[in-house]
Amino acid sequence: MKRMDKSEFLFKILSYTFTTIFAAFCLYPFIYAISAALSSKNAMDSGLVILYPVEVQLDAFKAVLEDKMFWLSYANTLFVTFYGTIWAMFISVTGAYALSKSRLIFRRGFNFLLVFTMWFNAGMIPQYINYVNTRNVFHSIGITDDKWVVVIAMGLAAFNIIILRNAFEGVPKEIEEAAIVDGANDFQVLTKVYIPMTKAAMATVTLFYGLSRWNGYFWARQIISNSSEWPLQVYIRRALEDKFEAINYGVEPDLPYTYDSLFYAMIVCAIIPIIIIYPYIQKYFARGVNLGGVKE
Amino acid sequence: MKNLMDESKTLEELKQELAKEELLEQIEKNRWKNYFHIILKDWRLYIMLIPMIFWYFCWRYIPMGGLIIAFKRFDLTTGMWDSNFAGFYHIQDLMFGNKAKEFWEAFRNTFLLSFYGLVFGFPIPIILALFFSEIKNNLYRSVVQVFSYLPRFVSTVVVTTLTILLLRKGSEYIEPGVISNLFYNMGLVPRTVNMMYAPQYFRAIYHVTGIWETAGYGSIVYFAAIMAISPTNYEAARIDGASKMAQIRYVTLPGMASTLTIMLILRIGDLLNVGYEKILLLANDKTYVTAQVISSYVYKIGMSATGGSYSLGASADLFNAVIAMLLVLGSNLISRKISDTSLF
User: In this structure, is residue B83 part of a structural domain?
Assistant: First the structure.
């Protein structure tokens, strides 16, 4: 048994206490959201719900599940997440592969063009005008679903491309050379050697893209005018804006649940997919942060 | 003898250099022709580059060119190229004209909000990582870590919706939110105050929710740095009789110095990039005194429903982008000078 210094012992106690409190602080809003979504109007109105559900009712969840617009927005979010992630990964992987090759001419220049977008951001107004123009172009070629603007024109991140580029640079040259001797071309080298050998980085970047698509709000709200194409985040926010003022003045219909429970139920439905896959993906995220050493 | 040897060597080298130069000249002559051949021979590689170049050109570099409307009288009907030049009219209007007061207030708020974020937000993940590294029970530690990363994965809309609901003042019809109720009962906040509508609470709300969102996740990178420090260093320090604080001061912190520097550069470079999404979702007319930052101000003057001026908004965008870039490059330069650690 190692002898422990008094200060070390104190620090250990402090560590356990502080981290436990912090974890509870992080978790509490989620637990409260679930409990509030499940509690009755009576319990919510008298402030009885603090940690666990009181007088359980399932009507709030039922109301959300029966809300057609909610599920439409859910489907829109799935659409944007699915196609958006594939599109962003396609561009990032091919681009990162090319940038990782030292035989690429103007390689430094291309790298600079990529990194420069991390330093200099055009800002909201030029971007907005650009997206509006993109939308007009899409409309003129017959793509009237504005979700495609969100999928195609948004969401790439130079940082993610750099993570992939660094991962590709770390693949031993001998393996690639062996594949080339066997007659593989660049496309085959990428799909048969590089992608299988950088699974961790690929997973991390896919998840980064997927998450930012799932959580995207601002530009979707600015660009998508048709309410049947709104993604989930826009729908939740609009619901809050529509009903929040009303409930302060007691204009609430007579239901077995409060509007609060309804909002909490929506929030729970919106984060359930994340919570379900979270235990499987969190190790990639933890790894991904350390992969992103930016260098040029 | 030695000199002679050297001379002959240099002669040889001179000859080689001459040949090299000739070769280089030839290569230079046929430079573009050669590039063409290289690209043609290696066309697959360059095909793969095209989607990225195309994307970045269309949706990153064209908007940068679009900043030109800061110097034009732009409206959507005339278009970017046909509208007339206005010179520095908008920038002048923004900085010294009748918009100046609001603009500089937004600038000050941006700076203060980031500065407080740096002061409070920067150390917390480090402290958290120190504490995580002290927990030797692996199962317990991973459980605690997983819980504290979780808020990072939730959208800004969900975070702000939760904040608005939990901090509600309530009325005669409705209970206050759980958290605001707790503050009222503890006497930290007077019952008459609606925290979401009180400018003096905005920064605190912004930062506490920010810490909730990112501190756990932000600790990962420091945790990895601490874990990379060899345990023998701690053993040596203990033998020398170092207390825990001394161990942290003389072993842990120097061991993670390069990580700390890089993260600090990133933060300082980001000092003016306060995300507009959270501000727009969290602030309201009553809290704009403290909540209005440059990016949300751009939204207000450029895109709000009451009809704004795109050109004026673009001027503010340009101002913000230039200062932000100078901050990134400046902090990077300083760090390269003093610590040999730099990002670019």
Answer: no
A272 to chain B: which residues are within 8 Å by CB? none
Is residue A154, in this structure, part of any structural domain at all? yes
Q: Please give the residue range of the domain that contains residue B39.
A: 2-69
Residue A140 included in any domain: yes
What distance in Å separates the CA atoms of residue A91 and residue A86, rounded to the nearest whole number?
9
CB contact under 8 A, A11 and B51: no
Q: Which of B39, B69, B99 is the last residue of a domain?
A: B69
Q: Are residues B162 and B220 in the same domain?
A: yes
CA B115/CA B104 separation, integer angstroms: 16
Q: Do residue B62 and residue B124 come from a single domain?
A: no
Domain total of chain A: 1
Report yes or no on A25 lying in a domain.
no
Q: Using an 8 Å Cβ cutoff, are A31 and B268 in contact?
A: no
Q: Does B77 touch chain A (CB under 8 A)?
A: no
Residue A32 has pLDDT above 70, yes or no: yes
A122 vs B321: CB contact, 8 Å cut-off?
Answer: yes
| CA A39 to the chain's CA centroid | 29
**B327–chain A Cβ distance below 8 A for any pair:** no
Single pTM value for the model: 0.88
CA–CA dist A41, A247 (Å, integer):
13
Q: For residue A296, what is the nearest residue in chain B, using CA coordinates?
A: B344
Same domain for B171 and B295, yes or no, is: yes
Mean pLDDT of chain A: 89
**Are residues B179 and B214 part of one domain?**
yes
Establish if B276 touches chain A: CB-CB under 8 angstroms: yes
Share of chain A above pLDDT 90, in %: 61
Interface test with chain B among A124, A164, A190, by most B beta carbons within 10 Å: A124
Overall average pLDDT of the A178-203 stretch: 91
Q: Do B321 and A120 touch (CB under 8 A)?
A: yes
Identify whether the C-beta of residue A224 lies closer than 8 Å to the C-beta of residue A134.
Answer: no
Q: Which pLDDT belongs to residue B127?
A: 95
C-alpha–C-alpha distance, residues B219 and B126, integer Å: 6
Low-confidence ranges of chain B (pLDDT < 50): 1-2
**What pLDDT score does A168 carry?**
92
Please, which residues have CB within 8 angstroms of residue A230's CB and are 6 or more apart in sequence? A73, A76, A220, A221, A224, A238
Q: Verify that B162 and B98 share a domain, yes or no.
A: yes
Q: Is the pLDDT of residue A173 over 60?
A: yes
Q: What is the pLDDT of residue B307?
A: 56
Asked if residue A17 is part of any domain, the answer here is: no
CATH code, domain carrying A190:
1.10.3720.10
A8 and B244 within 8 Å at the Cβ level: the answer is: yes
- Give the DSSP H or E segment for A61: helix A59-66
Q: Could you give the ipTM of this predicted complex?
A: 0.91
| Predicted pLDDT at A25 | 95
Answer for the pair B242, B250: CB distance below 8 angstroms, yes or no. Answer: yes
pLDDT in tens, A228-265: 999 999 999 999 998 877 776 766 677 888 888 999 99
Residue span of the structural domain in which A238 resides:
75-251
* Distance between B13 CA and the closest CA of chain A, angstroms: 28
Selecting from B45, B63, B171 the residue whose C-beta is nearest the C-beta of A248 gives B171
Chain A environment of B245 (Cβ under 8 Å): 7, 11
User: Helix, strand or coil for residue A39?
Assistant: strand
- Between B258 and A185, the higher pLDDT residue: A185
